[in-house]
Amino acid sequence: MRALSIAAAAAALLGATAASAQAPAAPAPDSMAQRMQACTACHGKEGRSTPSGYFPRIAGKPAGYLYNQLVAFRDGRRSNAAMTYLLQHLPDDYLLEIATHFAGLELPYAAAPAGNASPQALERGAALVQHGDARRAVPACVQCHGERMTGVEPGVPGLLGLPRDYLVAQLGAWRTGQRKAAAPDCMAQIAGRLDAEDIGAVAAWLASRTPPADARPAAVPPAARPPLDCGSAWR
Amino acid sequence: MSRISSRRRTASVLTGVAAMGFALAGLIAWLNVRGEEPLPPSPVAVAADAATIARGAYLARAGNCTGCHTARGGAEYAGGRGIETPFGTVYASNLTPDAETGLGRWSAAEFWRALHHGRSKDGRLLYPAFPYPEFTLVTRADSDALYAYLRSLPPVRQEARAHELRFPYGLQASLAVWRALYFRPARFEPEPQRSADWNRGSYLVRGLGHCVACHSGRNVLGATAGGPELGGGLIPMQDWYAPPLAAPSGGGDAWAAEVVALLKDGRGAHGSAMGPMAEVVYRSTRHLTEDDLRGMAAYLGTLPPAAAPEPAEPADPEVLRLGRKLYGAQCASCHGERGEGQPGRYPALAGNRAVTLASPNNLIKVVLHGGFAPATAAHPRPFGMPPFAQSLGDAEIAAVATHVRQSWGNAAPAVSPADVIHAR
Question: How far apart, in whole angstroms, are the C-alpha atoms of residue B346 and residue B366?
Answer without folding.
Answer: 13
